[in-house]
Each structure stands twice: as C-alpha cells, then as structure tokens.
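Illustration: Camphor resistance protein CrcB.
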Amino acid sequence: MITKKSNFNVSTTINRLENILNKKGIKIVAKIDHTTAAASVDMELRPTQLIIFGNPKIGTPLMQHNQLTGLELPMKVLAWEDKDGDTWVGYHQTKNIINNLGIQYIPEITNKISSALDNLTDYAIRD
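Result:
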C-alpha cells in the first residue's frame, strides 16, 4: 500500500485527481463518497472518497495475460481525512497486486501503471 499526505482536503484532492484524469483521457469508472453513504444510514464517517479509473490500453494486456487481474482493475485511489484532520491518498502498489494474485510479473506493463499512479496522485496532492 502506498500512502501520501495531501496538501488539500478530501474533496479538493479527489477533484484534482479527477481533473488530471480527464485531461489525460483516462476513463473514470466511478466516484464513491463513503461519507455520504454512511450518512444515509445515520452513521458518521470522516471525509472518505474513492475514485475508480483506468485505461483499457494499459490494463487489458494484463487481463489478457491473466484475467484474475480483473479483480483489481480498474485502478482505485482512496482519499480520507484522518483523526488529526490531515488528508491522505492511498492505493495498492501494482507489483504487489500482481504478486498477491500469483501472476507473472510483467515489468513493462506494471511499471507503466505504477509510474502513472505516482504521477497522477502527486499532481492531486501538491500545489
């Protein structure tokens, strides 16, 4: 798991990530506001949002190699506020996803996904 502290609140962090994904032409599959879901059943949860996104040109070759990767694709990034009011983003490291599924490591694809996740989340969390 990779976690990074954001300079912004949860909503702004997710919006910045959404904006860069749109600019890069990366498909946003879903955006889930866990805080709103909790409130709908009269429960409290600090701000927590998940965004699910992917690029079939990158993810499909992994799925062609082994369809079990469909359990983890498209990619997901979670943004949350901790008990101290700090905002964080977290996502699974691509190499670990592959290892956990017992799939052969394909560096040219997994490194590309890892690099993209690092760059996209860096943009979302920094000025």
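Reading the tokens back as a structure: The first helix runs from residue 10 to 23.
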